[in-house]
Amino acid sequence: MEQLNTFNRIQRLLKEKEKYIKSLQNLDLLKEKGEITLRQYEELAKDYSRKLQGIDEGLDTLKKGLKEEIAKLRDAKEQLDEQIRKTEIGALIGEIPPQKAKNQIARLKRKIDSIDKKIHLYESAVHSNLYSEFQAKLEQKAHKSAGKSIKTLKSLKEILEEKEKQDNNLKNLEELYKKEEVNKKEYETLKREYLLKLEEIIDQIESIRREIELYIGEIKVEKEHLENAIEEVEVRIKVGEIDEKEGKDTIEQNIKQIKKLDQHIFKLMKIMRANSPSQLEKIIEEEKGEGKEQKTEVKYHPRKKRFKISYATFGILIIVLIGYLFKDHLPLLNTESKIIAENTLSFKPYLMYLENSQHTIDTIPISPYEYVISTIKSTGERLMLPLSIKDKLLFLDEKGHLYLSTQKLDSITLIDSINSFVDCDPVYIGPYVIFSDLDGNVFVFNSNNLKLKNRIRVEGPITAQPVSENGILYIFTETGNLYSYNVAKDSILWNVKLENGGRATPIISGKYLYVLNAKGTLYKFDKERGIKEKEVNLDEPCESSPIAYKGKIFIGTLKGSLYAITMDSLKTFYKININSPIKTSPAASKGAVIVGDLGGTCYAYSTLDTTLLWMYNTKGPNILGISIYDSVVLVANTEKIIALNLYTTGTVAETLWERKIQNGVVAKPPFVYKGNIYLLTADGKIILLTAKKDLS
What we know:
Elements: H1 2-32, H2 38-92, H3 98-126, H4 131-146, H5 148-178, H6 184-239, H7 244-273, H8 277-288, H9 311-326, E1 371-378, E2 387-389, E3 392-396, E4 401-406, E5 412-417, E6 427-429, E7 432-436, E8 441-446, E9 452-457, E10 467-469, E11 472-476, E12 481-486, E13 491-497, E14 507-509, E15 512-516, E16 521-526, E17 531-537, E18 547-549, E19 552-556, E20 561-566, E21 572-577, E22 587-589, E23 592-596, E24 601-606, E25 612-617, E26 625-629, E27 632-636, E28 640-645, E29 655-660, E30 671-673, E31 676-680, E32 685-691
Antiparallel strand pairs: 1-32, 2-3, 3-4, 4-5, 6-7, 7-8, 8-9, 10-11, 11-12, 12-13, 14-15, 15-16, 16-17, 18-19, 19-20, 20-21, 22-23, 23-24, 24-25, 26-27, 27-28, 28-29, 30-31, 31-32
Helix pairs in contact: 1-2, 2-3, 3-6, 4-6, 4-9, 5-6, 5-8, 5-9, 6-9, 7-9
């Protein structure tokens, strides 16, 4: 945190230094033109020089501290390299199982990549004397990254081709088995083989996603610099330092650049809708024509602020938007269907919740009639799911900024910041609001005045939403650390280290805590003592959070399986093969469990047996979340929200209404509060949908 603040202060000083250097140059011009007196010139020049001297002294001090941090990062990188070498040797001599060694090395390399990115950013700041130099260094790095966009698309195409092949193999095998042309033993052997290959494919997809994440930080930094640069130009126009015509020309150029960016985004949207290698191949060919203009004229709505974008930035944005094909919310994000309702504090167990007993349904039923988009607001950064506090909505963005808004989004106010990167939904527990970040910090705010009360540090990034009961917070990190934390007393009660971490929100039920890791192992803990009671290994990778419903835990896996596990004995009650990755949490109500897959199909199964009640193809990729309210099932994919009838009697779900979102890429599950539906997009927009007419 301290280094990040130092880094930001250096950027501000570099910008300020460049401003005063420019002012001195303008002062010299005014003197040459005779527009100011010699006395005025000397006074202003002395003032600017004095300020520049102070800035240089401040920069020297800050850069010295940042150099020390760079040295520490290099030492940490060397230690990680040494760990990789030891792991490789351990695998060679048989001390470490090959698969475990492979996973350990992958984790260590991700840490090294993260350190390399920090070193590059810090060195760019340390070795720059002007703000423009700093931007140029980032631009140079971005150009190197941009060349990887086509390679990433090609890799994705190859993976889709292989997946399509394995899907066809599985489909043909099922048909042959039904026709009794293969016996049961052959069928099970081949099916196991194909599923293993599919698991490898999914691992490759995850690898691409991790590669994409390495560039997100650079994009955010560069975007912020460009926005700040535009604001500076606007100020210089107002004070008369820049000619108004020259300034307007600059703004016009920015508008043209943004139009081009919109055209590129329009093309990249097709990537997100691509379901076959042939569709992706067409997009790859388009990307090879670097300077080719789109014929489609994109309508551009005027905005108050505009920013320029370089081609290099666009190249990186290609990677990021591809990332949304595999990642729900951005930081990033990637959490599943968690609903915090108005009656959060009641903690009513098993009252139709999505994640755990504190996440109950909205107290006001959803109208079955059509909903329309009534309001769109933007904060500019990807948001986590909001909390409802005293008839207000509290939003947290991926950079740690806190916003307070009215229900109708009439006003959105920035109220505070935790100054760190976030990929985890906040938690409301009684008098406290909890925020967690990727550095392992847990921030406890007072919900009455939204002031920071205390903060603790745990080991590992927190991407799984913590859960709480009776003032005790349970935290699960990506490094496999599980904590029990007494919020009021600010003390950690116990800490358990699991073999693997994960992104899945734990479940509280009675005296037990259920935790699912990324490898598909489900643990049952005594939540008071932190003692493991039971565990079961599904041997399938999991990313989404499990849910509990009437004595069973329902889990969706990246292999495309839906499990029902008994809560008492952790025995498999049933397993259903959907054969398409499940990246978002199921939802359960009225004896039905609803699950959506990566291909955009939604399934409703009985919670008592494997009966398929109905299904629905959303005709769009990647279902991001499912919410059930009374008889209405809300399903969101990346481009629209659909309301289905839970009590459909046919094989295809009855559509009550659907709304296509043309204002951005949906990045979170639907959030419902007091009968209104809120959707969050990848670029920081909040979309409010309200009922077109009432039930009456």
